[in-house]
């Protein structure tokens, strides 16, 4: 059973996140150091520099030849279940939409497993838990965060195209009915623009290059040159801290601390701590996971919301208030929730 000493280790890993958050909040709300424009610039620094280097560093140091394919398969099934449910909800209900489908996928699927999950799993299941969490984090960075980035860029590019089309129409035919109609760029052209944006986004390469180097280094026992390693680390180590700092700045620019309101906060917590683990449980049982591997798979799906999902949402202008609230309150709630899952799963053999 997890003890108070183990709980303390998890708290030690979580407190620095809130220190960075409070500093970011205070720099805007209390000390007036940064403006809204400067806050956006810092978020772009995080999005295009520190996060890609952070993902490169942690993925470059795993052993890809010893990854648990059954756990990865269970994770893939769980994400597929979530995507199917969200697609059905968006298609068959009046409240469903493409924008909320993207945000719902983030809330139910993407976790901050490295910062909170690693100390939590180490306390509960030792090195087995740590290894599985790191492996799933690499898969998340390569596949699922890339998919999220694609969805966000698709939406943003389409909106930009519609706005340009409307502006061109209104300048030709003088505020007219045609100027307010449904415009869109041809699909092939839209996809080309999206892929061009992704091709110039370093987040598309960070984890792919990292895992590629991991294959090379483990196959031929190579190490990165000291200068290269140091150049990456000096920026990557600031990744999580600057992301939380940016989130604090975003909070300070909102009228309320719970920026998205109480009802959406509750929905976010349900998706994060119930829907995500439930889908993972189905996927784990489907591939035949048993024992501690099954338990780790379910509990790691109940760790807090991915900070990266907030950074992407802020940069692309989609429900950043919902994601920031999910990260902040989810990080607080994750410890008791994870311990509750741990206690319940002790009865599973």
Report what the structure shows.
This protein has 349 residues and is mainly α. The chain has helices at residues 4-29, 36-60, 69-92, 98-109, 113-125, 127-172, 187-199, 206-220, 226-236, 239-252, 262-286, 291-300, 307-316, 320-345. The protein contains 14 helices and no strands.
How do you describe this structure in short?
77% of the residues lie in helices and 0% in strands. It has helices at residues 4-29, 36-60, 69-92, 98-109, 113-125, 127-172, 187-199, 206-220, 226-236, 239-252, 262-286, 291-300, 307-316, 320-345.
Can you tag this structure with a few keywords?
349 residues; mainly alpha; Na+/H+ antiporter like fold; 14 helices; 0% strand; globular
Please report which band the strand proportion falls in: under 5%, 5-15%, 15-25%, 25-35%, 35-45% or over 45%: under 5%
Major sheet: none
The radius of gyration is 21 Å
Beta strands, count: 0
According to CATH, what is the class?
Mainly Alpha
Give the ordered list of helices and strands. HHHHHHHHHHHHHH
Our measurement of the CA-to-CA distance between the termini, rounded to an integer number of angstroms, reads 15 Å
> Outline, from the CA principal axes?
globular
Number of domains: 1
Mean residue pLDDT: 90
What is the correct CATH architecture? Answer: Up-down Bundle
Low-confidence stretches: 176-182
The CATH topology is what?
Na+/H+ antiporter like fold
Helix content: over 70%
Number of helices: 14
- Helix and strand content put the structural class at mainly alpha
